[in-house]
Amino acid sequence: MNRKTLLVLTQVYLPDPASVGQHMADVSESMAQNDWDVIVLTSNRGYDNYRDKYQVFELLNGVQVSRLSLTSFGKSNILIRVISQVAFLLKALLKCFTIKRPDVVLVSTNLVFIIAPLLKFLRNIPYLYWVMDLNPDQAVAAGVLRRNSLSVKLYNFFQSLVLGNADMVVSLDRFMSQRVSKKNNNIQNHVIIPPWPHEDHLIATRKEKNSFRDEHNWGDKRIFMYSGNHSLVHPLNTFLQATKEFEGTNDFLMAFIGGGLGKGMVEKWIMNNPNTPVTSLPYQPLNNLNQSLSTADIHLVSMGDNMIGCVHPCKIYSAMAIGKPILLLGNSDNHIAEILEEYDIGWSVQHGDIETMVKTLGYLRDIDKNILVEKGQNAKKVIQSKFSQKKLLDKFCYLIEGIQ
């Protein structure tokens, strides 16, 4: 029996720490374990930091990874991002006609998705479109692009083409699904699968005490942690502004770990407000993820009010998987707020409501730790029953295998 081939087109892939690349790798490796040949075309430079350079070709956990040069120039502004995506699109397109014909193509949300319907028309190859974030909606909501601009109209045209010809479309939540459906009412198969936590990296492999807290001299402080991409579309201002009321205190700490365009704002805050209980650290390697995430007592999540349905912050699932409660910065009408309310795993504060944030931080700083542990255990049970990596990943791979 001939093995089938999956072609994955993604601008970011492991070992890059960006969440999109990690999820693409999960699917690729699982399909390889299911006796598929998997070919990944990606960039040879880091998504967040283009100075990071990766091998041109490697066999990574059973997946054939080919990395294309001159296809990533960083994320300093929207023009640089577009140039990177166009460069990757063109080089990937050329590469697609030199490799073995795949049985299925997997694409996500950047300009390379244009290749998918082209391959379907020219070579009769079906494809799955994984909507991990929704553009140009995100850029319009952020005020980066005008709704009626030519670039937005062109992007919407191509996206509608991709949606209308996809053999399967996967959105991350019901809000995103509703937005996607409005873009094209001829989608053949449209399902919702939320992004799973990387539980294989969250399980402690050693029985010794977590050393992350000691390494950073955090002592017995109550740790509020924001871990992952510091995106400008999920403002952190209310978190930061509230810490002004705790200047000089030494019993809690707000730790921002990761990178992204919003990282500079956090570090500028620390420089201008050195006595507030705020610290900043870079992305942690996957093999240290359990150590860093489990150090927190409460995990911070921000959901931009105008980004609902455009993006889906997935950091909540990793926090839940290690048994930690959530403090959400955002309104009550989004997928994170629904999870918090349904399963009693945390608290939420509106953007801009600094007074309530101050009160909430003070309350959570002083609350009995057993209450935090109880809510964290609620969160862990929800992951195991509804959002586990195995359940969601198996469902995703089943969809790929069912595409004819």
Compact overview of the structure:
By secondary structure, the protein is an alpha/beta fold.
The H/E string reads EHEEEHEHEHHEHEHHEHEHEHEHEHEHHH
- Distance, first to last CA: 16 Å
For the sheet with most strands, the description reads: 8 strands, mixed
- What is the helix content? 40-55%
Number of strands: 14
pLDDT < 50 stretches: none
Q: What structural class do helix, strand and pairing data support?
A: alpha/beta
Multimeric status of the protein = single chain
Overall average pLDDT? 91
Globally, the shape reads globular
- Strand adjacency order, main sheet: 3-4-2-1-5-6-7-8
In percent, how much strand structure appears in the residues? 15-25%
Number of helical segments with 4 or more residues: 16
Radius of gyration: 21 Å
Characterize the structure shown:
By secondary structure, the protein is an alpha/beta fold. The chain has 16 helices and 14 strands. It has helices spanning 19-33, 78-96, 115-123, 137-141, 150-165, 174-183, 199-202, 212-215, 237-242, 263-272, 289-295, 315-321, 335-343, 354-366, 369-387, 389-402, and strands at 5-9, 37-43, 57-60, 63-68, 104-107, 127-130, 168-171, 190-192, 222-229, 252-259, 278-281, 298-302, 326-329, 346-349. The strands form 2 sheets. It has an 8-stranded mixed sheet, with helices on both faces. β12 (298-302), α12 and β13 (326-329) form a beta-alpha-beta unit. α1 (19-33) packs across α16 and α12 (315-321) crosses α15 (369-387). The protein is globular and about 65 Å long.
